[in-house]
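Issue 218. Parser rejects a valid record. Input:
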Amino acid sequence: MPLYQPLTARQKALEVNIDNTIYGSFAEIGAGQEVVRNFFRAGGAAGTVARSISAYDMAMSDALYGRSEDGRYVSIHRLHKMLLHEFETVVDRLYETREKGTRFFAFADTISAKGFRGNKPCHGWLGVRFQHAADASSSEVIIHVKLHDKQAVSQYETIGVLGVNLLHAAFNHNNDYKVFVTSLMDNLTKDSIEIDMISAKGPAFSSIDSRILNLELVTQGHTKIVIFDENGHIQPTADLLYKKNLLVLRGSFRPPTHLNVDMLSCGLTKFAKDLEINEEDESIIVLPEISMNNLRDSSDNGDVDSNDFLARVDLVNALGNKVMITNYDNFYCLNTDLSSLARRKLAFILGVHNLRELFNGERFDDIDFGHLGALGAMFNPDTKVYVYPQREENSKTLLTSKNMSLSESAQQLLNYLYSDNKVEDITDFVEEHLTIWSKEVLEAIQSGNLDWEDKVPETIAATVKSRNLFKKVS
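Output the parser choked on:
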């Protein structure tokens, strides 16, 4: 396969303009008419642009697209209304007059850019509803972005380039998820913009699972966190986590075992008790987390196996849980970013081994603010750690935070955290689950040994067998 060669925004816009089968409308709110302007400036826009519209006034916007269910104007609901209205308008009015073979589209964005007043977060939604082939059913791709430029004019220019990239990718790269994601950031930098969500559906994306697009965002470093809901659908991270109490368990979940389930259950019981609310309270979000390190561990060459990733998401979903994929090597950076998003209480469920690593000062030698700074970031005022015990292999010793071996200085730090109620042992665990190890379960699955089935929930065993998951490729 030839290497991908990026084009400039002008080259992409011109390539679309001179394709006389592509024709549609642009609707932009909140960052000028920067996307369509690139198509006009490239030349030949009359062959692409049916109309361009911008409804900045809220009353005008509502008159065109109707009020959004959530009452917001920079939201996925508003974008859906814009895309649907614009696409139907173009097709209804132009289908009979345009030459056969036309592929209609509607591009829309709604952006909260830097303004003269306030210091609100700068972000936005961009999307394309389009026909990948003449007379085909429509497909749709939507992305959410965070804008990091300090100047409004820079944000406008960034959105202009990104919009061109998105429209060009929708028509040209809808069958290659790696190139699709790569091309979105052509001529842009991560210092300027972060793409933290992609939703793609329709016949144009029949060969691409939308979840893989989001995994690729994390793999390529365009964002640090993506979250799938209980049905495997991507969710906007900032909206989902805002003002929620978060309970996080990192694991490989390859496959989820009774041990994983017990850790989540015990952690949730303690968390709800500390919060003085019911375990079913909607203010709590339970997040099984798979780090990129855990995903890459499943591949001999260090790449991420897409099928393996999808299998793990499906299995965690089968237990009724959301799934969070992250690109954090350590817990303190993860905690810092989750805390800023949630702005409520946060708790981690850690095994004894992971807790011990938090107090291993040598692991933090390369960090500017050192071990104490890392612990400070991990144990901020709203964060707590619940420690799940560990049974030493071939030993009757039960390891907890109280009897694990630490250096004298690390023990003093841990004692301080005890006194501040930042670390607490889980005591109501299921004894027989302590000796279940995901690695051994995986090895049993791959060897055809059925002894693994009683170590995982029934729904997990049934799914693994019916879909023939985790078999070793010869």
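Fixed in the parser; the record now loads. The chain has two domains: 9-223, 239-467.
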